Amino acid sequence: MTATPAWPRRRVLLAGAAVALAAWMPQRAAADLVRLLPQIKPSIVAVGTYQRTRSPAFRFLGTGFAVGDGRLVATNAHVVPETTANEQMEVLVVMSPGDEQTGMARQVVRVASDRGHDLALLRLQGGPPLPPLPLAATERVQEGQAVAFTGFPIGNVLGMTPVTHRGIIAAITPIGIPQANSRDLNPVLVRRLSSEVFRVYQLDATAYPGNSGSPLFDPETGDVIGVMNMVFVKSTKESVLTDPSGISYAIPIEHLRKLLANVQ
């Protein structure tokens, strides 16, 4: 009887190990996310305005999350209104999960804004700090890596329940793309193409209205790597499309780091 060579047997063993590893990795990632979500959710807030005489009193505008010392909330600049109806006692507020039922809202003020990257920082005006989320090092982000984001998709309809979605970084791409026809250019896109290259994360994940300002984080560590953004990015990235693409985007965390450095 001829003995089976060792090398084919080794190849079979290696192939079996690879299959087992491929099956184990998604389970490991899911387990990490299950472990992390109870730590992530207390940091997530709904951003909006509150007016006691209005029905409903709280008007939802987008998502935010606690950063820095826990008294700062990061969100998209387009989520924050330029003005509020002070004469009608309307104020800018954030609400944590469950606050909608109790009617509790915490007043905030805008302390910093980066219109060029559509980011804003709000400061809580009272009460205890929120648990801040850690910000990741920018060099860690790579195409193909797993990501998750938590926020309030269609929050004005579905309520203030944090919802988490998963996906991957599909591409790291410029926000402004040269167009083949000058008719497809608009003033915003022209400014994008004439300024420094601004790259955003294109995601293989579905975000919804209300997810703007949600933290995009590493599902293994919980470190925030970006801020979800739909309106601002699509205004240049997909300006020539007549129908929404369904693609989601996020602003890299390095821009929020710079904004934080000017506040703390």
UniProtKB/TrEMBL annotation:
Keyword Signal found? yes
Q: Report the superkingdom from the record.
A: Bacteria
Q: Which Gene3D superfamilies match?
A: Trypsin-like serine proteases
Q: InterPro entries attached here?
A: Peptidase_S1_PA (IPR009003), Peptidase_S1_PA_chymotrypsin (IPR043504), TAT_signal (IPR006311)
Keywords attached to this entry: Hydrolase, Protease, Signal
Pfam families given in the database record? Trypsin_2
The protein's GO terms of the molecular function aspect are: peptidase activity
Q: Where is the signal peptide?
A: 1-31
GO biological process terms on file: proteolysis
Protein name in UniProt: Serine protease
